[in-house]
Design goal:
heterodimer, A: alpha/beta, Flavocytochrome C3, Chain A, domain 1, 14% strand, B: alpha+beta, Fumarate Reductase Iron-sulfur Protein, Chain B, domain 2, 7 strands, binds iron/sulfur cluster, binds FE2/S2 (inorganic) cluster
């Protein structure tokens, strides 16, 4: 057992003044000292790029790393929906407290109050900053910023740039970063992957990287290290994440003593395009906004479903009376707009009953026929058209609202969603779990920080729509630039860190040995085939619904797969060359361990909350049963190859009342 | 369907490179990159090196993927990146030639992977608004006309893929550069540095080895995000003004 004590390091004081008072009283680093302090930032998506540029503006010397060929490619770019901020521009009763409350409740009461409140506070600054950078947000006719309501909340606080909000925000952060690269404040390392963390005297002082073009292994030193490396959804193999997303920087840090928090909290998004075949490499999200107008259903009888699966019938052939609009039936109050976790689980149940509507049986319908009728009639009346072609009029309105999404669906599936109902199925989308951090976003390893999706801090057991972009930018622009000072103000007398120490030499040798070991296995199966099998195991036993029995089985299966991997994986190509298979191999090796930890975590948590649903802990109607008495804690895991060790951070709720989420 | 592929193989920048023939069994629902995955799994099972190609999001937004398919950057379908192109647009028995985005400014790294850092250098030369974190006024302090914001957005949807350069016989980066100039220059907050920005970005573009623009228009045709060539005309006017002074 180790002697780790978890301290959230929350400042004292009332919730609403905490952050302001703390900022006003924390130790600062003087400008002349900043010049001598170096910071390594790994990952240059929203969180990493915004942190790198802001720290550079403040005068720190920054070295930024990405495995991409350019920071502009980070997966933040793919976020569609929008970014929340408590601006209350719509005068509809929004406030910092309401955003805070919605986030805590949406997260099913498994996040830290103080962090979430700070997030809600700085949300407004983010919008100002992005507008000033030239992010072309959607506007009203009067020229002011437009908002929409998103993810089932009662106010309109989501800012957006058509369906490409993530792209526009990332480009903004990338441009800010480019400016600091051009004036020499940031040294940018593209196509470099972090393969290990280096500790000197217990503090994070550097990283070991592999140059992905030449294969060269390098040492990089700094006074502290920041991880902004995104989520680990690709442990499932199939997810909406980009192909390169991985857990390795975080996992390497866990193996050096950092703690992994709530790894079993993963978000399964209900509206994705279903899997079409075994060759499938990734899944595509269809924006949640579609559920505002689409109705979800499956056939009432298995016979009809099977006819559809065999291609003998289509959705339109099923009579109205033979359809089960199961969300409207089970949740009359929220209907098709229930939160993501609830909608996903309901789809799984329908398909498990054999009512799925694709050849694989893993899809449900999202039907716009009623919306087309409704809009068509309204349009005919408002324009006073005699003998109207309702369908044509309605389709035009639907096209104006969702045209780009319908087009994307058509491109991928080859089916026309105006004529036939769309088919959707849940897919892994986001990971709420991540590296454990305190209020300063510092991990339990001194000098190691984690931002954005890479940390666990703000979303509890379920993330609300349009909150991921908010958190990434809050951490990078407005939190870390202050809180990093709590560590660095004690380091002003520390000279430049040298890479010549034995610690760096050992870490470099470990990396080289690891690569050689993988390469020398020279087995018969591809990395991809192992990844795919891992994904199937994690999806089956640690996906939308979990049982103690299944989690034990899953853990064993992953162990067996890991053994097989180290006996039989084949990596073509050379170590000293551009070698994507080698990159994948190191990432899958880390996923194999993380996957096991997810099972362990899910098994420990004998309750159902947010994205974590344990069948044993549900009501007779199949609704989640949370256990606040025994499980209102953050699970922070210390890795141990035999049995990972659990450290608990008890969560205290002083400003909100814990309630059962009900959408009936 | 059975496809006859001719794939460009090149060990590194010094290697001359050559085509390699392969056959692949594909289905219509596969994306082009998934068809390439199938090829690579085939090669790996024969203990050969797979074809290196760049990809990440596989949903048409990151700009990583970059193949010239039968002579066209990103292939035959309009407004579509390589990753979003599906095999149902091909027929059984088709021959498909696959090459990297070629241009003097994009040296080949390996097989279909090229180095596009020259694009980053153009952005670093001025493709930003100089505002530090925390300096910004309220987001609604400056109203911006809806259509203007929309126009700026259209230019800002460029994914930095480089198809415009690969399509251009001169290897010009005018469409990419002008898209950034328009995105920022159309907005009031970007106007302040506009003239300087145009000058610095265009000069860097030349320095990086991109060719001249002679109004051929191939860039606009092949651009997967359908960025308008109008942006180039606008940038040219601004560039002249920046060189000869005076107003546009
Ligand atoms: S202008 Fe079009 S083709 Fe050129 S980089 Fe941008 S998106 Fe690609
Ligand atoms: S892989 Fe991202 S655009 Fe094609």
């Amino acid at each position: 057992m180790s002697n780790i004590t978890l301290n959230s390091n929350e400042p004292k004081g009332g919730l609403t003044n905490k952050w302001t008072d703390y900022r006003g009283s924390m130790n600062l680093v003087a400008p002349n000292n900043k010049r001598n302090l170096e910071v390594i930032i790994v990952g240059t998506g929203l969180a990493g790029a915004s942190a790198a540029s802001t720290l550079a503006e403040l005068g720190y010397k920054v070295k930024a790393f990405t495995f991409h060929d350019s920071p502009r490619r980070a997966h933040s770019i793919a976020a569609q929906g929008g970014i929340n901020a408590a601006k209350n521009y719509q005068n509809d009763g929004d406030s910092t407290f309401r955003l805070f409350y919605d986030t805590i409740k949406g997260g099913d009461y498994r996040s830290r109050e103080s962090n979430v409140h700070r997030l809600a506070e700085v949300s407004t600054n983010i919008i100002d900053q992005c507008v000033a950078q030239g992010v072309p947000f959607a506007r009203e006719y009067g020229g002011l910023l437009a908002n929409r309501s998103f993810g089932g909340v009662q106010v309109s606080r989501t800012f957006y740039a058509r369906g490409q909000t993530g792209q526009q925000l990332l480009i903004g952060a990338y441009q800010g970063l480019s400016r600091q690269i051009s004036n020499g404040q940031v040294e940018m390392y593209n196509r470099h992957e972090m393969l290990d963390l280096v500790l000197v005297d217990g503090k994070a002082r550097g990283i070991i990287t592999r140059n992905l073009v030449t294969g060269k292994i390098d040492r990089h030193a700094a006074h502290c290290v920041v991880l902004a490396t995104g989520g680990y959804g690709n442990v499932f193999y199939l997810s909406t994440n980009a192909m390169g997303c991985n857990v390795s920087a975080g996992w390497r840090s866990v193996k050096k003593g950092a703690l992994m928090a709530n790894p079993c909290f993963t978000q399964i998004h209900p509206t994705c395009i279903p899997v079409s075949g075994h060759y499938q490499s990734k899944l595509t999200l269809m924006s949640e906004s579609l559920r505002n107008d689409g109705r979800v259903w499956v056939p009432k009888t298995k016979a009809d479903a099977e006819a559809i699966q065999r291609g003998e019938k289509k959705g339109v052939d099923i009579a109205e009376a033979d359809r089960d609009y199961y969300l409207e039936r089970r949740y009359p109050a929220f209907g098709n707009l229930v939160p993501r976790d609830v909608a996903s689980r309901a789809a799984k149940i329908a398909c498990d009953e054999g009512k799925g509507v694709s050849p694989t049986g893993l899809a449900v319908f999202l039907d716009f026929a009623d919306a087309i009728q409704r809009y068509g009639k309204a349009e005919a009346i408002s324009k006073g058209i005699d003998n109207p072609d309702i369908v044509k009029l309605g389709e035009a309105i639907v096209k104006a609202k969702y045209g780009n999404l319908f087009q994307m669906y058509e491109k991928i599936t080859g089916e026309d969603p105006y004529k036939n109902p769309m088919k959707i199925y849940p897919a892994v989308h986001y990971t709420m779990g991540g590296i454990w951090v305190d209020y300063n976003l510092e991990t339990n390893v001194p000098g190691l920080f984690a931002l954005g999706e890479a940390n666990f801090s703000d979303h509890g057991a379920n993330r609300l729509g349009a909150s991921a972009l908010m958190q990434g930018l809050a951490d990078g622009y407005f939190v870390l630039p202050y809180t990093i000072g709590t560590f660095l103000s004690k380091e002003i007398r520390t000279p430049k860190i040298s890479t010549d120490s034995p610690e760096f030499a050992t870490a470099e040798r470990d990396v080289t040995d690891r690569l050689l070991k993988l390469k020398s296995i020279n087995g018969t199966q591809s990395v991809e085939s192992f990844h795919r099998r891992l994904g199937q195991i994690v999806w089956e036993y640690c996906g939308m619904s979990r049982t103690a029995e299944g989690l034990k089985t899953g853990r064993q299966k992953i162990r067996d797969l890991r053994d097989e991997f180290y006996k039989d994986v084949f990596i073509p190509g050379d170590l000293e060359d551009y070698n994507p298979e080698l990159e994948k191999a190191t990432r899958v090796a880390d996923f194999l361990e993380l996957g096991e930890l997810m099972m362990v975590d899910a098994l420990d948590r004998n309750e159902s909350c947010g994205g974590h649903f344990r069948e044993e802990y549900s009501t007779d109607e199949g609704e989640a049963k949370r256990d606040d008495e025994n499980y209102a804690y953050v699970s922070a895991w210390e890795w141990d190859d035999n049995q990972p060790i659990l450290h608990k951070e008890e969560l205290k709720f002083e400003n909100v009342e814990l309630k059962t989420r009900s959408y009936k | 369907m059975k496809l006859n592929l001719k794939v460009w193989r090149q060990k590194n920048n010094k290697d001359e490179g050559r085509y390699e023939a392969h056959t692949v069994e594909a289905t219509g629902d596969m994306s082009f990159l998934e068809m390439m995955d199938v090829l690579n799994e085939q090669l790996i099972s024969e203990k050969k090196e797979p074809v290196a190609f760049e990809h990440d999001c596989r949903e048409g937004i990151c700009g990583s993927c970059n193949m010239v398919i039968n002579g066209k950057p990103h292939g035959p379908q309009q407004g579509t990146t390589t990753c979003q192109l599906h095999m149902r647009h091909f027929n059984d028995g088709d021959s498909i030639a696959i090459e990297p985005f070629r241009s003097a400014a994009f040296p080949v790294i390996k097989d279909l992977v090229v180095d596009r850092s020259a694009f980053d250098h153009i952005i670093q030369a001025g493709g930003y608004i100089s505002v530090n974190t925390g300096q910004a006024p309220d987001g609604n302090a400056i109203p911006i006309e809806k259509d203007l914001a929309g126009q700026s957005f259209d230019a800002a949807t460029c994914i930095g893929c480089g198809a415009c350069v690969a399509a251009c016989p001169n290897g010009s980066a005018m469409l990419f550069t002008s898209a950034k100039v328009a995105h920022l220059g159309l907005l009031p907050q970007g106007k302040v540095e506009h003239t300087k920005r145009v000058k610095n970005m265009v000069d860097t573009m030349d320095k990086e080895g991109f060719g001249m623009c002679s109004n051929i228009g191939a860039c606009e045709v092949e651009c997967p995000k359908e960025i308008s060539i109008e942006n180039i005309a606008m940038m040219n006017r601004s560039y002249l003004a920046s060189v000869f002074g005076g107003r546009e």
